[in-house]
Specification:
Elements: E1 11-18, E2 25-31, E3 36-41, E4 45-49, E5 55-60, E6 69-75, E7 80-85, E8 89-93, E9 100-105, H1 108-111, E10 116-121, E11 127-131, E12 136-140, E13 147-152, E14 161-166, E15 173-177, E16 182-186, E17 192-198, E18 206-207, E19 214-220, E20 225-230, E21 235-241
Parallel strand pairs: 1-18
Antiparallel strand pairs: 1-21, 2-3, 3-4, 4-5, 6-7, 7-8, 8-9, 10-11, 11-12, 12-13, 14-15, 15-16, 16-17, 19-20, 20-21
Length: about 260
C-alpha cells in the first residue's frame, strides 16, 4: 500500500555512468518486469542496463518515436514502454525489443499543449504529460483522448519543464526544469511537496554531483533510486533516497 511507504522527499548523488556514444540523452524508463533501465538519446539510440549500471544491449527507438524523442515511461499495468516525441506523438512499444505496438497523435490544438517533453503514468492510472511550451503538467486519461487537469509549473518555479517521473512508493512526481536546472516534487493536483531546488547542489530534492544540464528522469522502484542524464553529453547520474533504499514496485500499480 502507498500509505505504508514513507514518501521520499530528498535524494543524494551516488555515482555516474558513461554511455559513451549515446549523447543528448532525453528519455528513459525502468522496465519493472525485466528489472532493467533503458536510456535513449534524442535521436533514438538507446541502451539497456542492469540496475547497477552495467550495459546489457543496444536498442533503437521505433521509427514512430523519431526523430524528436523527448520522454519515456513504463506502463506498469499493460507492461509496455511509452515514448513521446516533441510533436506529441505517443508510442507504445515492447519494453525490450522496442517493437511498436500502438502510436497515437495527441491533439495539440484542442489540448493546448506544445513540445511534449516528458510522460509518466500515475498510481491513479492517468497519464501525465509535460508541455514545455505552455509550462504545464497536463493530466490526461491513459488513452490520451481527454484532458482531466492542468498544473502551471512556471508558478512553481519550474520554467520550461523538461522531464517527469513517478516517485517510487508515492503518488507524487519528480519534475525537472532544464532551463533553470531545478527539480521539485509535485503532487498530482499540483500541490508543492518539495519546492524547486538547484540540481546537483546541496538543496533538495536532488543533492550533490555538481551536474551539468539534466534530462531523462527515471525512477527505479526496486530501490527507490532516481537517475538523471546529461542533456548535452553522455553521462547518467544515480541518486539514492536520503532515508535509505526502498522496494516499492507494487505501489506503482493503480488499484
Amino acid at each position: 500500500m502507498i500509505a505504508d511507504v514513507e514518501d521520499t522527499i530528498d535524494f543524494v548523488y551516488q555515482k555516474s555512468i558513461d554511455l559513451v556514444n549515446i549523447n543528448t540523452i532525453q528519455a528513459s524508463y525502468y522496465n519493472i518486469a525485466a528489472q532493467e533501465i533503458v536510456f535513449f538519446s534524442f535521436f533514438g539510440q538507446g541502451r539497456r542496463f542492469t540496475l547497477d549500471g552495467t550495459p546489457i544491449a543496444d536498442v533503437m527507438a521505433p521509427p514512430e518515436a523519431l526523430p524528436k524523442l523527448d520522454g519515456a515511461s513504463y506502463d506498469q499495468v499493460n507492461g509496455v514502454a511509452l515514448l513521446i516525441t516533441q510533436d506529441c506523438r505517443l508510442v507504445e512499444a515492447d519494453p525490450v525489443t522496442l517493437q511498436t505496438l500502438k502510436a497515437i497523435q495527441l491533439d495539440t490544438v484542442n489540448f493546448k499543449i506544445g513540445v511534449c517533453a516528458g510522460v509518466a503514468i500515475g498510481v491513479d492510472g492517468d497519464m501525465y504529460v509535460i508541455s514545455w511550451q505552455t509550462n504545464e503538467m497536463v493530466k490526461m486519461t491513459r488513452d490520451g483522448q481527454t484532458v482531466l487537469a492542468r498544473v502551471d509549473l512556471a508558478a512553481l518555479d519550474l520554467l520550461r519543464p523538461d522531464g517527469i517521473s513517478l516517485i517510487a512508493g508515492s503518488e507524487n512526481f519528480l519534475v525537472l526544469s532544464l532551463t533553470d536546472q531545478k527539480a521539485a516534487i509535485v503532487a498530482p493536483d499540483g500541490a508543492v511537496v518539495v519546492p524547486a531546488g538547484a540540481v546537483g547542489k546541496q538543496v533538495p530534492p536532488l543533492k550533490g554531483g555538481m551536474l551539468p544540464y539534466q534530462d531523462a528522469l527515471v525512477m527505479d522502484c526496486s530501490n527507490g533510486h532516481v537517475w538523471a542524464c546529461d542533456n548535452y553529453a553522455t553521462k547518467c547520474h544515480e541518486f539514492a533516497p536520503m532515508g535509505g533504499d526502498k522496494e516499492a514496485c507494487a505501489c506503482t500499480i493503480p488499484p
